[in-house]
Every structure is written in C-alpha cells, then in structure tokens.
Amino acid sequence: MGNRLDLLSREYLESPHAHLTELRRRGPVVQVDPGGMWLVTRYEEAQQVLKSASLFSSQGLRASAQPAWLQRVNPFADSLLFLDPPQHGRLRALVSRAFAPAALARLEARIRGVAREHVAGMMNQKNVDFVDAFAMPIPATVMGWLLGLDASLHQRFNRWANDLVTMSGVRPEDTGAMARYHQTLEEMERYFQGVLDDRRDAPRDDMASDLLRAQVEGEALTNHELLSFLYLLLVAGLETTVNLLNQCALVFSQHPELLLRLREDPALIPRFIEETLRYEPSVMATLRLCTQDVTLAGVELPRGALVLVSLASANRDEKYFPDGDRFILEREGPQRLSFGHGPHFCMGAMLSRLEARVALEEFVSRVERLELRTDHLDWTTALLVRGPVTLPVEVFAPESGQPVTARIA
Ligand code: HEM
Predict the structure, then answer these.
(1) DSSP state at residue 79
(2) What is the pLDDT of residues 256-304, one digit of tens each?
(3) In 3-state terms, what secondary structure has residue 279?
(4) Are 296 and 48 in contact (CB under 8 A)?
(5) In terms of CB atoms within 10 Å, which of 16, 72, 150, 238 comes out highest?
(6) How many CB atoms lie within 10 A of CB 78?
(7) Burial class of residue 398 in the structure, from the number of CB atoms within 10 Å of its CB (0-12 exposed, 13-18 middle, 19+ buried)
(8) How far, in Å, is the centroid of ligand 1 from the Cα of 375?
(9) Is the pLDDT of residue 399 over 90?
(10) Closest residue (by CA) to atom 9 of ligand 1?
(11) Main-chain dihedrals φ then ψ at residue 76, nearest 5 degrees
(12) Lowest mean pLDDT segment, chosen from 118-122, 197-201, 381-385
C-alpha cells in the first residue's frame, strides 16, 4: 500500500476492509486520496465528528453531489442532508411524520405481499441477478408508495438513484459519464416536476402532496426545496436498502449455515440484519467540512479541510468490535454507525430495517441455499456507498419444496 491510499482505486473498491484495517492501525485520522482528504478511521472520533455540526459541517458532503464539472444545479445537493442546524432541523421535522412507527406498521403487510411475489419469481427462475430479481424491486416499490411515484418505473428510479450517488466517483477524463449524469438530472427534473404539478391539481395520500401542504415558519416550500426533498428521499431510500439486501445475500452465500439457522428460527433475522449492517454497511462513509482550524485526535485540520468519516471502519474498530472481520450473529457492542450519528441520523433506519426483515422472512421461508454464480463481482465506483453492480446467484428450495411460512405469519 503506498503512502496515500486512493479510495476510488480498484484495489480499494474491491477489498476495502483490508485497507481500512491498515489505516486504523496507522491512526484515527489519516490523509487519503482523492484530494488529500482526511479519513476518520475509529469509532470515538467518528462519533465526535458526526455530532459536532458547528465544527464539521455537512456542506462537506455537498461536494460529492455538486462536483465542479457539473454545469447545472443538482436539487439533491440542496436537500437537508447537506444542511447544518438550525435550518436542517426545521426541514427535517417536515418529513419525520412519514417515518413514525404507526405509519410504518401500516406498510408491513403490503411489503410482505411484494416480497412474497418476488421470492416466488426467483424460485421459478432459479438462476437470477439478485439485484434485479429481489434487492431492487422491494425498496423501489416501497419508495414509489411513499413518494407517490409510478411503481412500474422501478428500473428507472434505480438508475437515477445509482447515478446520483456515484457522481463522486467520476474521473476528470470521463466525459461520457458526465454526459450521462447531465441527462439523468434532466430526466429526474422533468419527472418530479410532473409529479408536483399533478399533486398541486389533485392532492393524494403521499409525501409529495404532504410536502406541498407543508409550511416552514408560515411559508410554503419553494419549488426547488420540494424537488430537493423528492430527490433526497428517492436516493436515500433506494440504493442503501438495495445494498443491504445484496449484502445479506452475499453473507448467505459465504455462510450457508446462517441461512439454515434463520430458517429454523426466523426471530434471529433482526440480529442478522444488524450484523450485516455492521459488517458491510451500504453507506461506507460520509463527508464533513471543517468550519475552522480544529485538532482531532492530535491531528491539526485546517479550516476548509474535507473529513471523510468511515462508518465501515468505525464499525470494525478493534476497541469496540473485537474480531471485527468476522460475522458474528450473537455480537453485542455499542450502536453501530451504519445509519450515522447525531443530527443527521438516518430518518429511514426503521423503514429499511422493516423492509429487510419482511423481505428476509419471506426469503428464508422458501430458500434453503443461495450460491454465487460468478468468480468476480464489480462494485459501484463511489466514495460513499458500496454495492455489487450485479449479483448472479442460484437459489435452491428445500427438498420437500415446502415453505416454512407457518412460523412467520
Ligand atoms: C440500509 C439502509 C440505509 C442506510 C445504511 C442509511 C444510512 C444513512 C446514513 C449513514 C445517513 C447519515 C448521513 C450523514 O450523516 O451525512 C442517512 C441519512 C438519511 N437517510 Fe438513510 N440509510 C438507509 C435507508 C434509508 C431509507 C430507507 C430512507 C428513507 C426512505 C433514508 C432516508 C434518509 C434521510 C432523509 C437522511 C438524511 C437525514 C438528515 O440529513 O437529517 N435512509 N442514512
């Protein structure tokens, strides 16, 4: 490993954890590329940065959504994810109702129906791309319901969300990718503007209509703020949960005995989800910007420095997660940082846990074994999120072919 590791290099993207272990050994705050940003590798320092918005601003994250080469406004880059208190808190309150436990409980039966249908589809085909057959359609359908979008446009939503989170990985010479991102933003704007115009004329029971009615300090949201919300929720709610499900499938392929244990005892599924989130978090890192000169763990960071908080590394910090490179279903330990920490803590944490639990309950009730059908996986090229581009697998039903649904209903 050279002196400064490039987090967009192929060697890092293919096996980040070995590199992160080495970086943690070097110290809690180490300089990396691209751009000589500072990587926070350990749990305590990661928490410290994430809860101190006045020293470490979320404007740092904005650079990933509004790169210099992008010659147009990206409404996503103006969403609450990139704002600091107090402006952040006022906007956050507007959407929190939609994620309240009662609202989520009403979704469970519908999610189960969709998951059941996709497990059945997978069992019919046997050899599938897991991303396309299972991991993507469930969260895409749920986000479609919540936002009031046309669920039949799954593939398109997924491409949009994927494009928005991979923008940070574009190399300066890759003009083809830049043109594609421009086109994506135009398509998204046309589509979401249409949704807002429709709901202005005929409100429905969805978030787009709620947001149109919402007021901050007596004023309605501007059209740009409305678009920003819709972009954020689509991106935050899709790619992340898709990759959580992908990672669950990868764990099943590496540890077939765990799939059998979950079939025996589906009550272990929430534990399995928590350990998967720790072991392979779909949001690998988040960015902050130093608002003033600051010393972090003895390292002097100048005002304006970019700080990349590695959630993946903090989740394997030896001090809190001994033997962190092992997947241990019974693992205890402090709260994982997979959903962040502090004022920007993920608003969809309960929703994604619900989606994953119901999806896996349906999955383990019908599938006894899942095998990977490739020797090599391609991973998304992005600084902040991680997931396989495709996941060719073969799924096997138990000999008897009998689902074990009785224990779950
Ligand atoms: C496995 C699934 C998910 C993971 C790992 C995840 C992870 C995260 C993380 C790490 C943050 C904090 C980013 C930061 O501090 O800069 C975040 C924020 C956020 N997430 Fe999630 N997320 C997931 C699913 C979802 C879902 C399903 C939704 C909604 C439908 C959602 C909505 C949000 C929103 C709105 C924020 C911004 C909160 C704020 O800025 O105050 N997330 N998420």
Answers:
(1) S
(2) 999 999 999 999 999 999 999 999 999 999 999 999 999 999 999 999 9
(3) helix
(4) yes
(5) 238
(6) 20
(7) middle
(8) 31
(9) no
(10) 339
(11) -55, -40
(12) 381-385
367-370-373 Cα angle (round to 5): 145
Please report which helix (H) or strand (E) contains residue 220, including its range. Answer: strand 219-220
* Nearest ligand 1 atom, CA 238: 27
Q: Token pair 């763990």 is at which residue?
A: 297
- In this predicted structure, the answer to whether residue 393 has a pLDDT above a threshold of 70 is yes
> What pLDDT is attached to residue 165?
83
281: exposed, middle or buried (Cβ count in 10 Å: 0-12, 13-18, 19+): buried
Strand-pair category, 299-301 with 294-296: antiparallel
Calpha distance 72→162 (Å, rounded): 18
Find where tokens 């074994």 sit.
Answer: 369
Best mutation site among 211, 346, 353 for ligand 1 pocket (most ligand atoms within 8 Å of CB): 346
* DSSP element (H, E) containing 144: helix 137-147
| More confident position, 64 or 313 | 313
